[in-house]
Write a structure and sequence with these properties.
The complex is a heterodimer.
Chain A: E1 4-7, E2 10-13, E3 19-25, E4 33-38, E5 45-49, E6 53-54, E7 62-67, E8 70-75, E9 85-90, E10 97-98, E11 102-106
Parallel strand pairs in A: 2-11
Antiparallel strand pairs in A: 1-3, 3-8, 4-5, 4-9, 5-6, 7-8, 9-10, 9-11
Chain B: E1 3-7, E2 10-12, E3 18-25, E4 34-40, E5 44-51, E6 58-60, E7 68-73, E8 78-83, E9 92-98, E10 115-119
Parallel strand pairs in B: 2-10
Antiparallel strand pairs in B: 1-3, 3-8, 4-5, 4-9, 5-6, 7-8, 9-10
Classes of the chains: A mainly beta, B mainly beta.
Chain lengths: 107, 121
């Protein structure tokens, strides 16, 4: 099973700042990685798939990069609605697995 | 607009059974794999099971294999999860989620609102 480790666990930032979230895999996942956003009381929402492709309707301030074992989600300038928990997920092999999440909170 | 609505959750005793349902609308149901994903405060998000668009191929996480059965009825746009021999550690919010295409093993494009399953005596 591929283990995904997300860091930091919590990121405290102000609106307008840049957020950089990391997802490290226990073995290479190539670019077969997605990012999701989850707000309290809501289901996760797909943001990025195949490491760098934005899902339908996702603003351009969200971008994904990296491949192999080190992948990154960047939010270029935080908006108030971006404060949430973010998860990565790999589809490189079975079972499909998720990281433990990074909470982006208002500083 | 894609909509997924789960039902069938609730409180069940250890060793008991429960059947979750998910009704889908707003897309061509048979063209997409479907999944069940669960979430607990302690273990976060866990993929549970997947089924191909046609229903002929299924996958399970090791911890539910032999206890849970995923199925679908494409004529009714319905997804199911039959859960038997339930354990306390199966307590979670269960989501149905679409796949990225007909073949399982991709991403989860759209999610339902989730349904709580509590296994307790």
């Amino acid at each position: 099973e591929i283990v995904l480790t997300q860091s930091p666990a919590t990121l405290s930032l102000s609106p307008g700042e840049r957020a950089t979230l990391s997802c490290r895999a226990s073995q290479s996942v190539s670019n077969y990685l997605a990012w999701y956003q989850q707000k309290p009381g809501q289901a996760p929402r797909l943001l990025i798939y195949d490491a760098s492709n934005r899902a339908t309707g996702i603003p351009a301030r969200f971008s994904g990069s990296g491949s192999g074992t080190d992948l990154t989600l960047t939010i270029s300038s935080l908006e108030s609605e971006d404060f949430a928990v973010y998860y990565c997920q790999q589809r490189y092999n079975w079972p499909l697995t998720f990281g433990g999440g990074t909470k982006v909170e208002i500083k | 607009e894609v909509q997924l609505l789960e039902s069938g959750g609730g409180l069940v005793q250890p060793g008991g059974s429960l059947r979750l349902s998910c009704v889908a609308s707003g897309f061509t149901f048979s063209s997409y794999a479907m999944n069940w994903v669960r979430q607990t405060p302690g273990k976060g998000l866990e993929w549970v099971s997947a089924i191909s668009g046609g229903g002929g191929t299924t996958y399970y996480a090791d911890y539910v294999n032999g206890r849970f059965t995923i199925s679908r009825d494409n004529s009714q746009n319905m997804l199911y999860l039959q859960m038997n021999s339930l354990r306390a550690e199966d307590t979670a919010v269960y989501y149905c989620a679409t796949g990225h295409r007909a073949t399982p093993g991709t991403y989860f494009d759209y999610w339902g609102q989730g349904i709580l399953v509590t296994v307790s005596s």
